[in-house]
Amino acid sequence: MIQYGYAGKILRINLSDGIFSDEILDDDFIKKYVGGVGFGARYLYKENPDHVAFSDPQIESFLQTVH
Q1: Which residues have C-beta within 8 Å of that of residue 5, sequence separation ≥ 6?
Q2: What DSSP designation does 8 have?
Q3: pLDDT (tens digit, 9 = 90+) per residue, 24-60?
């Protein structure tokens, strides 16, 4: 797996339910969205529908670290 500073996984934490799981990143995803900003932008776009306002309490949010 090509990692370039990434652990190859994303940790998902549901703060409402206290449930967590990890998601393994595949090489195609890594190649397409190289860099922390690319990953973050992709997940923000993927997890939230177009019609949800930034201030909506139902919006998915995330934290990321970039090396």
Answers
A1: 67
A2: S
A3: 888 888 788 766 677 778 877 888 888 888 788 878 7
Coil, helix or strand at residue 1: coil
Residues 54 and 22: their CA atoms lie apart, in Å, by: 25
Three-state SS annotation for 10-52: EEEEECCCCEEEEEECCHHHHHHCCCHHHHHHHHHHHHCCCCC
12: which strand partners? 21
pTM above 0.85, yes or no: no
